[in-house]
Specification:
The protein has helices spanning about 1-35, 35-65, 75-115, and strands at about 120-125, 130. The protein has about 140 residues and is mainly α. Helix 1 (about 1-35) packs antiparallel against helix 2 and helix 1 packs parallel to helix 3. The protein is elongated. Residues about 135 have low confidence and may be disordered.
């Protein structure tokens, strides 16, 4: 009976990690295409899947505390582990792309502010730029 439950948990976990892998691929393309609304939706889906994976992991851990993982389930566990590592790598790459995009937007914002206010730029305590000619004070995007 416990083996059947473990099998179902592992199959569900494998399905979830496959979905996560697919979402990360879609997210990468959305980052390239600069589809910000899609990226936000995908982030919510990733969070939901990660939460479900964490719950499944806890449930599997509770069952494995009672008995070791049967030999016939080791291959699926190995597939899950390998796919999880691949997902982690893809997520890191997507995170780097997001960081680069944010840095690019910040440079663009500074450039626009410099053009708008000429050479009369000042900085606040947090290092944000402010144009002296600006009537509204600090400019933020």
């Amino acid at each position: 009976m416990t083996t059947d439950i473990l099998t179902e948990f592992l199959k569900t976990q494998h399905h979830c990690i496959e979905q996560l892998d697919n979402i990360l691929d879609i997210e990468k393309q959305a980052l390239v295409d600069r589809e910000h609304e899609t990226i936000e939706t995908l982030a919510q889906q990733k969070e939901s899947l990660l939460h479900k994976l964490n719950e499944l992991d806890q449930q599997i851990g509770e069952h494995l505390a009672q008995q070791p993982l049967p030999e016939h389930l080791h291959p699926i566990k190995q597939k899950i582990t390998e796919l999880a590592q691949l997902c982690q790598q893809k997520n890191l790459e997507n995170g780097r792309a997001i960081d680069l995009s944010i840095n690019s937007l910040n440079r663009l914002q500074r450039s626009i502010m410099q053009k708008r206010s000429g050479n009369s730029m000042t900085y606040n305590a947090k290092g944000k730029t402010r144009g002296a000619g600006s009537s509204s004070g600090y400019i933020s995007a």
